[in-house]
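Example protein was shown:

_____
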Amino acid sequence: MLNIEEPVAGKTAFLKLGFRPFFTAALLFGGVAILLWMGMYFTGWTLPAPSYSAVSWHAHEMVYGFGLAILGGFLLTAAMNWTGVQTIHGWPLLILFLLWLLARVLPFMLGEAGLWLLAVVDIVFNVLLAAAVMHPVAKSRQWKHVGFPLQIGGMAIANIVFYAGLLGGWPQALHLGLYAGFYLVLSLIFTMGRRVIPFFIEKGLGCPFSAKNYHWLDVSSLVLFGLFVISDLYNASSLATAVLAAVLVVLHSIRLVGWYHSGIWQKTLLWTLYLGYAWIVFGFLLKVLTYLFGVSPYLAIHSFAYGGIGLITIGMMARVTLGHTGRSVFDPPAYLLPIFALLLGGGIVRVILPLLNSANYGLWIGLSQLLWAAAFLGLSIFYVPMLIKVRIDGRPG
């Protein structure tokens, strides 16, 4: 049957697909939240609720605010492509987005007595996002994709644990909820990256190339990562954690070798993803060095988060937005190169320079904060109009 799509009327398509509002939010919040964190870090400015420390807010918002905005935008869009089932749009998407936004604003409005309201709003958003990602999977009965909504649901459970700690019912829960959520984001990055990075490399090089993937590597890397997370949550400084991290360095390095082609360095949308994955591998190496030589554990965390998740997500958002707004992913805008370079430079400043010169640690943190904010807010200048307006080819989506 011939399927003829009707062109979209109007000038805005903000609520047509999940990537539009949530990528917009991630770009803007990714920059603004870091500037707020910079103000807190250097001035001692605090939130209205004394028990909600600036450090906890920063960690929580980068995982459950910034991270879930990107994951939600990607999965609500990709799930429709995978299953052929329409994901939420229009008013349901707006309600979900407003719940996310309200949870980001409430920490600056509520005192100690109001933290329960923040917890309810944020957890409701988590649960509804998991349900929205599950809907197309369940309706199409394509259970091979069920891991994605289950992992988002796992983040909702981890967030409940975090708020149990914040509200005073479980002192260790703050740490457990933050790190469990963070490692679930990393797990989703692994799962999505295994699917899309080699595919993007093969399609984007412009020459014949087959990225090598191994089933034994897929299974063993996920199982060992799960064991690593359990060990790290129980005792981050243990020998078991270091050994598991070392094995993961080897496994993910094999994966990177199998994906490598020299042509990626001429493709902005490819080297960003590749180097982002390499930052994650370096993070596992830093976990080993933390055990052996007492390197700060926060360097490994920021290798995962700043270098790895930061580069991969900004590269994903850049590519997905171009493709889903009718633009070419094979001839991306020239301004992406300096923007991605800012973020790459920021990762070097935040992770590598403290290894070489810890005496200027505060300087490296401040400079890396500025570079992160410049990259995400810089990209938002060009991308937010794309995300709001209809596709340039007139197609729906």
Q: What stands out?
A: DSSP finds twelve helices and no strands in the chain.
